[in-house]
Fold these 2 entries.
Entry 1:
Amino acid sequence: MSSFHGLEMAKQALFAQRSALHTTGHNISNANTEGYSRQRVSFQTASPYPSPGMNRPGIPGQMGTGVETGVIERIRNKFLDLQYRAENSKSGYWEAQADSLHRLEQLMNEPSESGISHTMNQFWESLGDLAANPDNSGAKSVVAQRAEALANAFNYTAESIESQRSNLESEIDVKEEKVNSLVRQIKGINDEIKQMEPHGFLANDLYDDRDRLIDELSGIVNIKVTYTESSESSPDIADGLATIELADSHGKSFGDADNEKTVLLDGTNGEIQELKVHYSENEGEKGAVSKITVGEGDKVQAFNAENFAASGSLMGNIDSYGYLKGEGDDQVVAGGHPELHQDLDEMVGAFMKEFNSVYTDEGAQNQDFFVMEGDTDSGQAYSIKVNDDILDNPGDIVASEDGYGDMASDLADVFGESLADLDGTSVNKYFESLIGNLGVKAQEANKMNQNVDTLRSQVESRRLSVSEVSLDEEMTNMIKFQHAYNAAARSMTATDEMLDRIINNMGLVGR
Amino acid sequence: MRVTQGMISNNMLRNLGNSYSKMNTYLDQLSTGKKINLPSDDPVVAMKGINFRREVASVEQYKRNTNEVHNWMDNSDASLDKATQALQKLRDLAVQASNDTYDSEERENMMEEAKQLKEHLIDIGNTKVNGNYIFNGVNTDEKPIINDDGEVEIEHNNKKVMIEVAKGTDMQANVNPEKVFNEEMFETIDDFIERLGGDAEEPINQSIEDIDEAINNTVNARADLGARMNRLELVENRLDEQEVIAKATMSENEDVEVEKAITNLITQETMHRAALSAGSRIIQPSLLDFLR
């Protein structure tokens, strides 16, 4: 062994401890960086001396030759990442649902003194007053006004539902753009990693960046990430290049009828397929989501909202916004908002029909009490209005026919009668169950949101437990490395003193 | 399990957040006085809430209607009372006149009085309350008795004025005018006036009988009205009770029990303070405080 071997060994030790200190400093600096995984230098013993062979020296062996820095790796558990992304996509979905149902509840504003049911009660009361005072022009005016208030309440509710829908449409567009943007960014990082790894480096910070982007993406659509080697010369423990596919709720890839999987980013060749949400242009379909495509040209894969199994906040929004369901003649517009609007339309339509038939059938008036005006394609609730003739001349309202105020009485009864158009329930009961259903759905979404959020934070907690920087730990490590550094420096001094004795003090007998 | 400062502070923040949101719920409950603010808080309570509100509204509506009926009946009763008095007066006149001791001048005076009483009865028959003629069946905007300078033209509508006072219960509010202010009565009066003009006694005695009949009719109508008024009172009592019950049920359904909400709020506040205190004790010290 060479005489200066000790110096060399101490020097290597100093370098090693210094790099460890440096990494500790890096960890401390990034203690609060989101998505950062703590890094650790793994020391390895340098190749011991002597190695076996025919020309080996006859000294006792093997002797250690000090430390060398192996790799600097990040401490991260990939399996926890997998779990987190699965919970994250569910959380994204339920959060979106809970949010939009909450907004619908606030819109309907029941039970309260200012919702539709209160307005219906007031109209009913005015008819009751008219029935007791059928010749009173004041009572007739009140009936006309309350009827208008009711029509306005329906109009306003329908408008608000549609306006919330258009907000949802904007959200869907933003999320679609986000998905594509995130995929592009991940590809960018893939490219950088591809340049880094073949040199034998572990691009830890780039891995962290990529994982953070993938986490964000998983909240919007459920994805499956696989890694491929970036090159032959990359370290074995390198993460490699990420390939992102859409995944269903079991974490398995899915594709449309002709394909087994839907790839958003192919790590092996860097190809990106863009996700696009398509809206229906047909009349009466209210711009519902017709299909979701991934890719272009002959590689395009198309899904309708029902078999797009990648859950997440995008699907959460689409479910609320409305999508086309079923085939051919059975095709309907499904979804939280459109279905509520349809139910409301059904109720208003049945109410209007029965009310008008009672008003015109028994009497000789050839005018409808309620009419539809304006954009009648938007539904009955949106366009129901009181006949202008009645608003202009409320005194013309016929309140009695064969009896005293019996017409007004019959009109008031319309609210409580079983109507065939509503499958045998009355307007009152139908509205109650409309609100009840909305409440149940919202309650379920809230509960699911809470549950999934709890699960997600548990996984996040475990993730942090593995990867997060603990300042105390870093402090302790710092002391450890510092001591080791000092000790290495000391050992260098010791070796130096030994060499000094040999070089300067040996062979000088008697001087 | 390895626990880091980040995890502890995240945990603390999340728990504080939960605690705040619970306090928010109790605060909402106390401020609005309602257990639920959105249907999702309790869908069944929400549905019932809509139902009960309607119940209360309908009971209130029926109470208004009974007031209306009361109005009709009170006025009808008062009018019939006046009519009876007028007819009594006529009867007295008839009794007086049937006494031959009166001469033609006095008879003239009586005739004038009788004519006045006839006008009075016509007025009563045309009683208008709140713009409605109460003695004309359902034709409340048409005058039933037209007085054409002494000639009386009567056109009555005999339909009952039915007003709904409870679910499925209609009550007749008016008096059937044909039973009281009918042609017979006015013919009786006309005959009487005529007989006063003439000399014969017998006819005036006849008038006494005829007027008696008219009085009986009026009294009978009043008795019928009285029976209906009794029934109305019973309905009113029942409605009062129903109103209390409906409001109580509505309140039980959705109103928050204030003691419960306040207790919950105080408990939550205490826990919140404990969480704040424990959290701050834990997240503050670190190894750095103790290293040289």
Note: Strands of chain B lie at 128-129, 132-133, 145-148, 151-154, 162-166, 169-172.
Entry 2:
Amino acid sequence: MGAIELPAVVRRAPAVAAVVLYAWWASALRPFSWAALVAVVGAGAVAFAVALGARRRDAPGSATPPPSLGAAGALGWVALWGALAAWELAAYVQHPRGDHPTLSSLADDVLGSHPARALAFLAWLALGAGLARR
Amino acid sequence: MNRSATLAGYALIAAALLAYQLAGMRWRRTPTIGEALARVVGRWPAARYVLLAGWLWLGWHVFVRAGVR
């Protein structure tokens, strides 16, 4: 009798649960504490290592090469992110902060609750894994 | 410039970013953000480490610098 092949979602459930629990714990740590720093840097290192390992397991040459970036396409992204940076800088140099909120101050308002911070931590981990796979 | 104007500016730029991404996905004439990053990293491998350093800084900024209220 052969081994039962579990669906991928079942096989990954324990790892996903562990990541969610870790995000819940890490996002509640006291600001500027060693525990918070280790939690962020450590989680980042693990996410990066896992993503690199997955990337090495992919068959070489199996990925479809992205289309040509082109100067116009690149300039579009540069212009948009540059506009965001400029708008943020303009807000940063003006006061009071309430009238000129920066992205950080807005994030502090939105991420004031533990569930929101835990979700943001998970999103941050996913972003890092995605970047490591590029 | 007051708070509403500042927030409107952020919303406008966010909408433009989203529209550019969706246009790339729909009409395939401009690169999506993923494609742009893939091309940059493919051309300059060191850029991956710059991006990851920025990502780590973001994590520090959001999760170490501030906490639950």
Note: Chain A touches chain B through 56 residues (CB under 8 Å).
